[in-house]
Amino acid sequence: MLNIVIFGAPGSGKGTQSARIVEKYGLNHISTGDVLRAEIKNGTELGKTAKGYIDNGQLIPDALMIDILASVFDSLKDSKGVIFDGFPRTIAQADALKAMLKERGQEVSVMLDLEVPEDELMTRLIKRGQESGRADDNEETIKKRLVVYHSQTAPLIDWYKKDGTYRHINGLGTMDGIFADICKAIENI
Question: Reaction(s) catalyzed by this protein (predicted)?
Fold first, then answer.
């Protein structure tokens, strides 16, 4: 299986490029936000537990998130592979994902880091907020999300470099140009 972690700051193009990867390579897309909403909507035991944390304004513990991802991953046994979008976000989550995949005889094939300068991220997210009405795409919230990204999530770059699966992708330019670079990284695995 081809297992990809797509990585980058908010507004780096992860969702856009994930859709293109899914289409070209026939992979499944696992977005943690979508998975959580589905588990809660379907009233599963995992979903009920997750909802309890969310309703109390708490982050979902890593162990619970891994259980949920493992459940989704196991349901895709006949898949050509998956894209993990929105996970991992911390080194502890990366360790847990690696262990979960190893238990299944799998591993992360590549981590694609879509790098975009902060001023461009701000421009993209504000524009997205104006076009989509997403409440979290306003300047104050974007700045907070970028601080969290830099403090908690960016350290994963070094973790995946040490793991040997890191690939830098310049997230500036045309969507087609960025996707061509992604395809080169995937095909060079």
Answer: AMP + ATP = 2 ADP
